[in-house]
């Protein structure tokens, strides 16, 4: 009997064989462990993303949702309110508003690369991706310098789940509580003296007399710190891993850094860091011979859709010339990742610098430790040997 | 399914079949039309799916909302009387054969 248990460490480590069975044999699959349906084909996921009236986000979008979060963030609000709130925030994070992050990102990248210069090997997670993303968040939100390590630890814990109880454990809930309090304190401080940073923009932004209320700002900041730190650093790590496993691709990028954006898109397809999000059905849906009932939760397995041979030729081959239009690495539809432009720009700059300074590297570990998470996927440590 | 043709700034025209109910922005981004970006995913909040709609189809479109009107004030290329955001135009049989021109730049 086929099972798909997104809490299983086997799925954390290698979800792709499970995804293939899902796509081929169970395209609308009820997972008893997750207590929800799983959609795995690209076309079905895309249809769901484009039909928010049927596939609602208002009951939560994380596979394991936190109490009190649904309805208070962009990702857990449906249109039309969603669209009004997103308009408040979007203008601060569109491509043309981000020139100011280029030089700070380059500078923090080089500072952390200086620290590993001369080493034979290093852990990409601890030494590079975590440090750079934390610095970037500190810059974007103008966060205090103190307590950054705790903030990073809590962000990483927040996205995890306990594989045995199949839910958030006490340490994950405590991390969430810590982050919401951290956000609340920051917001209180920032309200007294708003600046130019993203958080100040959220607090002061207003359209048609509508502002984000205090809890929305708090939950939005909590979510953005979590996503910013964990999903960006997770993706940077996956990109570095792909380039370790595909040295020919890496050498092409070293020789011609203009190819970095294409390679990044292929990594977003091949190993998206956001593997799964969920929706809740507002009405019954007939799909592949199954009846999905109103009120049922549905997992949209982006990582499976990105390997769907019905959409991408030879999907298990990493091909930086592919230009995978329509990949689900940032989700899609009205809830497509808010940080898309930041993530693309930061990743490009970080890898321009990284590959300049570390053009040749290889993996030390054969087996990687994977984060226990139903939503995100990345290794918790990636040891790389230089040269 | 209805047909839409995107004419890029360099004159390249691409015709695609688009499912009714899907937006012209979705049709463009799913089919590799570079002249549409759609950064915000279709929530009418980024003004990077700007297009110029052929005049005789303008009246068939849903009326422009207040937010779309505000967003069009932020487009990078010239705003014209036939400017719309393609994420706000859903395909329907009435629009079959619609032609939209894409501006020089979106961001």
Structure explained in plain terms:
The complex is a heterodimer of chains A (387) and B (107). Chain A is an alpha+beta fold and 387 residues long. Chain A has a single domain, classed as Cytochrome P450 (Cytochrome p450). Chain A has 14 helices and 10 strands. Chain A has helices spanning 9-13, 16-25, 42-49, 81-93, 102-116, 124-141, 148-158, 170-192, 198-204, 214-245, 247-255, 260-270, 302-305, 340-357, and strands spanning 28-31, 36-39, 55-56, 121-123, 276-281, 285-287, 290-292, 297-301, 361-363, 383-386. In chain A, the strands form 3 sheets. A 5-stranded mixed beta sheet of chain A has the order 1-2-8-5-3, with helices on both faces. A 3-stranded antiparallel beta sheet of chain A has the order 4-10-9. In chain A, strands 6-7 form a two-stranded antiparallel ribbon. In chain A, α6 (124-141) packs antiparallel against α10, α7 crosses α8 and α8 (170-192) packs across α10 (214-245). The mean pLDDT of chain A is 94. Chain B is of the alpha+beta class and 107 residues long. Chain B contains 2 helices and 5 strands; from the N terminus they run ββαβαββ. Chain B has helices at 24-30, 66-72; strands at residues 2-7, 13-18, 50-53, 83-85, 98-101. Chain B has a 5-stranded mixed beta sheet. At the A-B interface, α4 of A face α1 and α2 of B.
CATH topology of chain A: Cytochrome p450
Strand order of the largest sheet of chain B: 2-1-5-3-4
Proportion of residues in extended strands of chain A: 5-15%
End-to-end separation of chain A: 46 Å
Looking at CATH, which topology of chain B would you report?
Answer: Ubiquitin-like (UB roll)
> What class, by secondary structure content of chain B?
alpha+beta
Strand order of the largest sheet of chain A: 1-2-8-5-3
Which geometry of chain A do the CA atoms define?
Answer: globular
Largest contact between chains: A-B, 27 and 23 residues
Helical proportion of chain B?
10-25%
How many strand segments of chain B?
Answer: 5
Evaluate the radius of gyration of chain B: 12 Å
**What kind of sheet is the major sheet of chain A?**
5 strands, mixed
